Amino acid sequence: MENSRGNWGSNIGFLMAAVGSAVGLGNIWGFPYKMGANGGFAFLIIYLALAFIVGFVVMISEIAIGRKTGKGVIGAYQEISKKFKWLGFLGIAAPMLIMTFYSVLGAYCLEYLFLNLGDLAFGTLNMAGGDLFGAMLTKPGACIFFTFMFMAICFLIVKGGIKDGIEKFNTVGMPALAIMLLITIIRSVSLPGAAEGLKFMFAPNFEPLKENFIGVLSVAGGQMFFSLSLAMGAIITYGSYLSKKEDIVKNSAIIVVSDTCVALMAGLAVIPAAFALGGEGAAMSGPKLLFITLQDVFSAMGNIGPLFGAVFYLLVFIAAITSAISLTEVAVTTYADRCEKKGVTPNRIKATGVVCVLIFLGASVVAADGLGSNGMWVPFQNSLGIVGAFNDCWLDFVDFFAEGIIMPLGALLMSLMVGWEIGTDKIKEEVEVEGNKFHFYTFYKICLRFIVPIAMAFILLGQIDGFLGLEIFS
Ligand code: PHE
Question: pTM to 2 decimals?
Fold first, then answer.
């Protein structure tokens, strides 16, 4: 039975939206800097292995759970499981938390886009990337304003609905993104000195794994989950609008492969450029890579620089907004499900408005904090005397709960639920409901029951260790 809440217009529409959700700041901002800071090639190998053994398997499960129940994340878990009924609440808390900082990072991209456009028109940008970023962070008013713009755009797309809003935007946005990314790669790898960066990415070197295997595993695992939009309710939600005719296994493979390719492409756009400009130190500079190092790359290109800068930050903005809409849709679909249950017609515009305003309120705090630049009070920090990666800033505080705990915990519990409570047969039934074959079923079953829970447990421990800076594993 097709569910009554409407479906994607086509399978391509679903794919574009799911890839749009997956491809985001995680790929373009997160992947290159995490790869840079965690050993280049070694990180890449672990990442690829996890994407195909864990990510692919969880992706199939989430799409199947969504489609089987035809419900958003809360309704889906309530319907499918007795023991893990409450799991959907994690699946809705996490996207809301993530959005409070995701929208701020998206806002930075928007601000950089305008700064580069301004530079192109009036030549106003006479600043090194570091100074530019610093100056931006210490102007909370502007950051809150751009966060508002980001959320307003998100609202306009999501309120249009699954087919007319989200699907339409992604079907144009995703191909545009791929083209712009290609242009940036060509520029990056042709810079003098870029070859060192390519070597760092692709020449075999397993040293970093010997030094800190769990550390690299947990960073790569956390990154992979975030990048594939897993354990966040987003894929369950999008899956709930998928027609029964479509092949879940094939779609999952396409989403995983595309997302991984874009992460690699983003690596190619960012890492060689960082090497060319500032050497290995620049490539390892962490979260600043996108906003400081790359801006320096553009500035060093002379007159054409701001044009590349504007194109690049527009690209990152598109990637961010297509992910943000999927995170926002998780809550909007949940509301629509509740209305359906009560027999009333959902008011989508109102629901989207309420969700976006709530996110904006939380995001204003993160924006005002400016990654800790403005001396704002941050919960827990000093009282616990915590150091480590958990910096004194609101972004890290929120991210610790969302990406550090809820995501890996959610994935761990979901794999236990499917593998040991409801059984992988149920997923097989859903995949094959209209005659599609579940290829690789044995592989799927073994991975989901054994490998995913073990990997997730290590990733969870490693993430907590990394965020809190306990250094148990290093
Ligand atoms: N996958 C997105 C990215 O890489 C972020 C995201 C996470 C979106 C979870 C939806 C759900 O940026």
Answer: 0.91
